[in-house]
Fold this protein.
Amino acid sequence: MQTHYILIDYENVQPKDLARLDGQECKVFVFLGAHQTKMSTDLAEALQTRGEHARYVRISGNGRNALDFHIAFQLGELAARDPAGLYHVISKDTGFDPLLKHLNAINICAQRWKSIGDLPIGRASEPTTTGEKLDRIVKKLRSQKASRPRKRKSLASTIDSLFSKQLTGAEVDTLIEGLGERGVISVEEGKVSYNL
């Protein structure tokens, strides 16, 4: 199976939907500028659950296109190691396009996308039934181990993020009830315990 390498230009795009990559064979690199001192908690949590398959790359210097050069360098290193990989640059900056065109000309599959949502991965596997959604939640909770949500409110937020914040509050409540009916969780006084 080919690995997807996702290189995010965080100065240019701040993704909110990394959860759609769950279950996909991919590695995520988030490039941060020298003066970027804040990142959303949702993104940080989504990256942390990916473990060794996610990495922050903070550049130390300043200057025009400094971050872009770091992304281009990392892309070249990765492509040299895995020429069969699939490379995705997440940025609205069209300056990457000539490099990506060159990579494609030498049979390295690389493309720029404006957002994570535009990626052609994670779409076909989107669960539609409640059962499929519950299976996906259980898989996510098993992967979290020590970092599982301890409160019902945190669990609801985790579920909402897992489905790219596309669920209604009632749908999230139904899924939490479904987890309880499956015996995966129990909720007492707002605190969640797990049986995974």
Observations:
- Residues 48 and 54 are 7 Å apart (CA to CA).
- The two ends are 28 Å apart (CA to CA).
